[in-house]
């Protein structure tokens, strides 16, 4: 049985997710063919050094592949140096994919959520965080039926995003655009969400998890899954 | 057949629990349940708890739990599953959840 993994976004969260995930797959699934496609249109820059792990100042998907290929010979890595948009999402996310979504905007989350809802069989694990808290969304479709709610159904801001898809910004030719202040990010929160995406993946490999989301707060040191399990005595 | 009579035992709510510790723990549980019943469950992300905010508005709760619950100012409030605004007044037994999808850099681009 083959596994096709897509990691979308190799920045703050993705750069910490990729290696442990690849390590786990390389050594735990020796009898399967594992393919990991790394997808990102962005470049590593000097300012990323504070939070993200990378080698050269190059495209993030390529740079991550360059680091992982020598370490994990049982995995076939592919690289897509592009941002997701409404068009290329169809070729990038396909039936039976396991998608790890590590982006920093709701516009791309909507594109991915909508695409997953078109498929009969897919697993989507989407992570995101603010400064000291974040969440992981788990969405699976099996034989044409969804086992929980999609990201767009769970969050109105993903259903109707107010932010910009980097793919649209990249293609824009009209006038000049100026980037305003970004929300701050913390390395430990990125790392925590990346770890929980791996935990959710493990649960999803053992069966069909009943939760839709896992919330984490590194200030209060709490973790909560939702919906909560009802225990009948 | 001779049957031995058992001495009279003072019955309490916790009869049947055969250790003092178990009885105290059970009593604590009952008291805690009573406290929860009168309070309002508030949730934001990983954080949740029961608070005596009957008669308070959503806005009051938002201000009070801003730091403890890492509550962003634009988180949507829902009471018993329905969206409410900050003027909504809470009543005993209700459940309040603040939610916002995490994970945006908040980038805004303007034409110059």
How would you characterize this protein structure?
The complex is a heterodimer of chains A (233) and B (112). With 233 residues, chain A is α/β, with parallel strands linked by helices. Chain A is built from eight helices and ten strands. In chain A, strands 1, 2, 3, 4, 5, 6, 7, 9 and 10 form a nine-stranded mixed beta sheet that branches. In chain A, helix 2 links the parallel strand 2 and strand 3. The longest helix of chain A has 20 residues, at 187-206. With 112 residues, chain B is an alpha+beta fold. Chain B has two helices and six strands, in the order H-E-E-H-E-E-E-E. Chain B has helices spanning 20-38, 58-64; strands at residues 40-44, 47-51, 76-79, 82-84, 95-99, 109-111. A five-stranded mixed beta sheet of chain B has the order 2-1-5-3-4. The radius of gyration of chain B is 24 Å and the shape is elongated. The A-B interface holds A 103-106, 109, 127-130, 132-135, 151, 154-158, 163-164, 169, 174-183, 185, 215-217, 219-220, 222-224 and B 43, 45-48, 68-70, 72, 76, 99-112. Strand 8 (177-179) of chain A pairs antiparallel with strand 6 (109-111) of chain B.
Task: Tell the overall outline of chain B.
Answer: elongated
Q: Mind telling me the C-alpha Rg of chain B? A: 24 Å
Overall strand count of chain B = 6
Oligomerization? heterodimer
Structural class of chain B: alpha+beta
Q: SSE string of chain B, helix = H, strand = E?
A: HEEHEEEE
Indicate the overall shape of chain A. Answer: globular
Q: How much helicity do the residues of chain B have? A: 10-25%
Give the topology, please.
The complex is a heterodimer of chains A (233) and B (112).
Chain A: E1 3-8, H1 14-28, E2 34-39, H2 60-68, E3 75-80, H3 89-92, E4 97-101, H4 106-118, E5 122-129, E6 133-142, E7 145-146, H5 151-154, H6 156-159, H7 166-171, E8 177-179, H8 187-206, E9 213-217, E10 222-226
Parallel strand pairs in A: 1-2, 1-4, 2-3, 4-5
Antiparallel strand pairs in A: 5-6, 6-7, 6-9, 9-10
Helix pairs in contact in A: 1-8
Chain B: H1 20-38, E1 40-44, E2 47-51, H2 58-64, E3 76-79, E4 82-84, E5 95-99, E6 109-111
């Amino acid at each position: 049985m083959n596994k096709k993994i897509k990691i979308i976004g190799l920045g703050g969260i993705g750069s910490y997710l990729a290696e442990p995930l690849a390590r786990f797959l390389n050594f735990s699934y020796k009898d399967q063919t594992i393919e990991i496609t790394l997808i990102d249109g962005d470049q590593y820059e000097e300012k990323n050094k504070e939070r993200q792990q990378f080698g050269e100042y190059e495209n993030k998907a390529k740079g991550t592949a360059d680091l992982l290929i020598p370490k994990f010979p049982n995995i076939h890595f592919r690289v897509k140096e592009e941002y997701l948009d409404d068009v290329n999402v169809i070729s990038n996310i396909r039936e039976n994919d396991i998608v790890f979504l590590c982006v920093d905007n709701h516009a791309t989350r909507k594109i991915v959520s909508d695409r997953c809802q078109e498929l009969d069989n897919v697993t989507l694990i989407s992570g995101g965080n603010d400064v000291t808290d974040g969440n992981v969304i788990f969405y699976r479709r099996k034989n044409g039926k969804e086992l929980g709610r999609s990201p767009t159904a769970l969050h109105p801001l993903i259903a109707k995003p107010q932010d910009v898809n980097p793919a649209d910004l990249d293609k824009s030719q009209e006038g000049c655009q100026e980037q305003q202040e970004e929300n701050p990010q913390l390395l430990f929160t990125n790392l925590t969400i990346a770890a929980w995406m791996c935990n959710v993946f493990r649960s999803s490999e053992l069966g069909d998890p009943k939760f839709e989301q896992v919330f984490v707060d590194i200030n209060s040191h709490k973790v909560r899954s939702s919906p909560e399990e009802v225990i009948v005595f | 057949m001779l049957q031995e009579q058992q001495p009279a035992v003072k019955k309490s709510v916790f009869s049947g629990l055969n250790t003092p510790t178990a009885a105290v723990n059970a009593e604590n549980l009952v008291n805690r349940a009573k406290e929860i019943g009168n309070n309002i469950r508030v949730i934001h992300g990983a954080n949740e708890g029961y608070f005596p905010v009957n008669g308070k508005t959503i806005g009051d709760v938002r201000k009070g739990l801003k730091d403890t619950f890492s509550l962003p100012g634009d988180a949507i409030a829902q009471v018993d599953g329905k969206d409410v605004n900050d003027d909504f007044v809470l009543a005993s037994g209700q459940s309040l959840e603040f939610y916002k999808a995490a994970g945006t850099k908040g980038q805004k681009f303007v034409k110059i």
